[in-house]
Amino acid sequence: MTNALIVIDVQNDFCPGGALAVAGGDEIVPGINAAMNDFDAVILTQDWHPAGHSSFASSHDAEPMSLTEMPYGPQVLWPDHCIQGSVGANFHANLTVDRADMIIRKGYNPAIDSYSAFFENDHKTPTGLEGYLRTRGIETLTLVGLATDFCVNYSAVDAAKLGFDVTVAMDLCRAIDFDGSLQAARDGMIAAGVKLK
Ligand code: VGL
Ligand code: ZN
Predict the structure, then answer these.
(1) Is the overall model pTM greater than 0.85, yes or no?
(2) Ligand 1 binding pocket, CB closer than 6 Å
């Protein structure tokens, strides 16, 4: 059986100094690099938004971190972040990117956000990651990265629903923790059958 490490969104904008900085986001980089040696496959995800993306507060004349209603459901409005080709969208400079077999980008659809590495926020449009994993015979996943309560959480829950064996290494994740989102994410992941380590 092949196991994979999926490294979620370890990008400059989610690290201290970035546009949507997660406290301690950079602290997990050495541990993630070390963990790569324990897996058959390493996959990185990259949040990758066009300028003017519909998840940006600036596109709605709204305050960052306010909530709006999209055709696919409620959506947090974020500061502009991870704009395609920007320094903020680059992986953290110390992340061992060379070890990755596959880099999957998400959030490129201007009208739909994509927290999950598997489906856009409409919960229908696939990113292609499921097919990649299945065709490689990968059944066991460990997720790490940023942010615990958004992209790691949505990716882990979708992966478990798709039938993968999913573990989240919580010590190699950091959270935005906005409005109770970390506790809700923990509860949701456990309910979906994700193992928290
Ligand atoms: C993320 C908010 C917006 C994440 C991405 O990587 O958790 N959060 N875009
Ligand atoms: Zn984003």
Answers:
(1) yes
(2) 9, 14, 47, 78, 115, 146-147, 150-151
